[in-house]
User: Fold these one by one.
Assistant:
Number 1:
Amino acid sequence: MTLGRYDYERRYRRRVWAGLMKFGLLAALVLGVGLFAYQMGIEQLKGRDVTLREEIATLSRQKAELELLATQMQHAAKTAEARTAELEGRLQREVPTGDLAKLTQLVAERLKGGLDANRLGFVITQAQTQRNCQQADTKRFTLSTPLLKGGARGVTFANGAVSVSGEGQSAHNPQGNAESWFDPGQPVTIKITGMGGKSTSVTGVLPLHQSLVIDNNEYRFTIAAAQRSFVEVTADRCAYP
């Protein structure tokens, strides 16, 4: 009985020690694997840290370059704005506008047409605010239309020295049919002819204004719509220049 119990206890201790050894080996294996994985993780983190530092350095450099570029662009924009303002001011100072632009164009056209610059300058210098004009004369006549072309239509001024005539578009009745009288809401053409064949014309919606210089007189005309089919012409004759 004593021998059997001894063998049983010895086998039991052997199994315990064997189990402890297996557990120890397993724990050592797990610990080794854990240490290896930990070391690998550390190495990966180190590599990741190096990569991130390089990326941060690259991004910082790019940020500095972009900030420099933005500063340069802002400076260029301010310079362009200042240059634009300077050019606009110069344009306003040097390029004529309004009535001056019209006069400049007229002077250029006269010079291009062969008018002597000295003669043109003399006329300009002789022009005065107070003018020597005769009393205005007002007459009316029937304006020609596509349906009303027959006969002499027009008026004369200054004992026949200047004649005024014109034509317009036919008016329409409510049914849409053309009438013989002109439509004052549509453009008309007025022709002014002086002795010797000198003439000028103007086209537009009434009232219209036009001038014609003959010898030493300037005739200024205002043409306005009057009663149906008629236009009224007011003529001023002033000394020129």
Number 2:
Amino acid sequence: MIPIETLLPFFAASVLLAIAPGPDNIFVLTQSALRGKSAGLAVMLGLCTGLIVHSTAVALGVAVIFQTSALAFSALKFIGAGYLLYLAWQAFRASAATFQAERSPEANLWKLYRRGIIMNITNPKVSIFFLAFLPQFADPSRDPISMQLLLLGGVFIIATILVFGSIALLAGTLGRWLNRSPRVQNIMNRVAGIVFVCLALRLATTEQ
């Protein structure tokens, strides 16, 4: 069992890392502002599901592949960048009426949940980050390292839920007010498209 004096600093560091501007929290922000709180929360859950995948990959040693193989790293990052460009294309071509129609159906929440998963797991930097970050708080003299890494991954996910959930609720409230104007909503769609393009370029130009 990891001692509380280790878990508390780890949790605090995880919260700060979740707050720092990055592709994931920006994604939650834009989707919440465009589609409402429920959409942002669905994206958040998708992103956290992706973090489960990364935590498991680190615990099992699979994440080392992305650290050592340039081909695997490049393949995954370009898949992720391509997906972000697809989201940008959807945002640019959408009208205010299109997004208004998408705000309520429950089926779209599942779609946004899947988007969150895809966006997170196609970023190899997350696995490499976990590979460097989590072991710093593990102690080989205690429980098996794999179990400690999974526990730390779970704590990181809890911190992420708290931060991203707050972002979703706040952005969703602001977005509901802004979306009363079709003109403002169209501007928000274009801004979201630009954000997706920037995130795609950032991911595509990331070095191993």
Number 3:
Amino acid sequence: MASKITGTGVALVTPFDAKGRRVDYAALTKLVNFVADNGVNFLVALGTTAETPTLSDGERKEVLTCIKSSNAKNLPIALGLGGNNTANVVEKIRRTDFGGVDALLSVAPYYNKPSQQGLYEHYKAVAAASPAPVLLYNVPGRTGVNISAETTLRLAHEVKNIMGIKEASGNLSQISRILRDRPQNFVVLSGDDALTLPLMAVGANGVISVAANAFPKQVAGMVNLAGAQKYDEAAKIHMAMTPMVEALFAEGNPTGVKAALSLLGIAANVLRLPLIPATENLVASIAQKMDELKNENLQ
């Protein structure tokens, strides 16, 4: 159940037309082909990086359809679907076509700050409703609530349809505890590009990456080397990519990576409010760092 969602996953952006009024499905198709051709292992549709809160229900459905139809290499797909109203999330799951979807990535309920028992009950209900295995998504910097190691492990051991977690807490002690005490097939994925290699060095199974939208070859190369325990070689890529990763998140996400995709000619540098495009200074910085990366001998 867990084996498909490991290695390098890419949290796909949603490209828009010049005015941001429509989704650019041709650019989305181009992006799916680009990351697939450059070694990523699975795709993540409609996550945070996709600006999903700004998409209509119809657009969300069409974006998922486009990703499925563009997926010529038949990579596994994880679908982002979550919220802070458990009954509403369950209803959305029941209305969603999970054909071609290999996992459900569900963010912790945000804003209303549930207790750990509330988080447990929420995910238990989500897992019972989902026809696909569930991947927890812990990102307290966005949600305002942390899924503790104890709650993660309780869900991992007690709820059959929960397959793993995308951990973006940045708390290495917490993630290490999960890695130490998890069931054998429970997948732990980095939710932070900057922490992928350190987490893989202590047993994590890969990453759901933002940077891999624009730099799939480098991210996948590093993850593959780390998976083969070639940490010295992986570290060379990690170090070379560190300035770029810092730049990609300097003005928020997906602000930086959309600027990079624009420089690559894959998607326009257009976001929907309340997000805005990268400043000219950041675009110039990303362009400079892209030139520097070209001179590196990376995988």
